[in-house]
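Re: weekly structure request thread

Next one in the queue (132 aa):
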Amino acid sequence: MADNGLVSVQSNVSASTTVDRLLEALAKRKLTVFARVDHSAGAATAGLKLRPTELVIFGNPQGGTALMQDRQTAGIDLPLKALVWEAADGTAWLAYNDPAWLAQRHGLGGASAPATQAMAAMLAAVAQEATK
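Done, posted below.
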C-alpha cells in the first residue's frame, strides 16, 4: 500500500478491454455497478482532450454497511471505486483505494477488520482478472 492508499496495477491490455474485464469480474461476483464515469467523454464535451479515463463505482451493501456502522464517515469512500486510464506511453492502469487505508483513514475498529480484509481480497482478485 502506498502512503496515499492507492493501489495501482498495470494492465496487459488496453484501457477499454480492462474496463470490459473489470465489469465482467464485478458481475461474476454479483456486485452492483452504480455508475460509470467516462472522464474522456466529459472532457470532449468541453472541447478538451483526455486519454481514455473511466471510473467505475460499485459495491455491495452487505460489505460496505459494516464499515459505515462502525464509522459513518466511511460512506464518503463507499461505494468502492476503480479508475482505469491510459498513460502517456499507451499502457493501461487500474487503481483502487486499499481498504486497509480506508480503515485507517476513518479509524475503523477491529469489528470492521473482516469486512476490510474481504474487500481487499476481492479488489485484488478483480484487479488481477481485469488486467491479465
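The chain has one domain: 6-131. Residues 6-131 form a domain with the TATA-Binding Protein fold (CATH 3.30.310.70).
Next request, please.
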